[in-house]
User: Fold this.
Amino acid sequence: MTKRERTQALRALYAQLPTVRCQRKCGNHCGPIYPADLEKEIIEKRMRRPLTIRPHPLGDDLPMCSFLTADGECGCHSVRPIICRLWGAVPEMPCPHGCEIENPVPEGKWKEFFDEALRIGGREHTDMIRPYVNLANRALRTLVEQ
Assistant:
């Protein structure tokens, strides 16, 4: 597939996800993101800077996305990757603020969406940062419990 076809395939995948009526309060739950290579490229091109991981204001051991603004909002919302689009839209990643979901993704199906985004977009970047996944999962569990 060409890059254009892969980009279109990602957009088609995103279009299958439900709409979340977001209250824009999830900044404290934003951890590091693990986009597919193409998603990362799209984000960095739009934002004109690299996607990195930085310390979370709630603690240095809690990593967060470099595009979370000082106001706690997503700075790359229009081009956010699949993992961010799944937040609040699937039972395994519920919104702690009660945001409403139209037609939630069935339990367990989120992984199919995530894996498909990686298949379409490539996974070299994701594999490279795999050592940070356990830290991120622990950090996200800590944030959700607060």
The chain has a mean pLDDT of 81. The two ends are 43 Å apart (CA to CA).
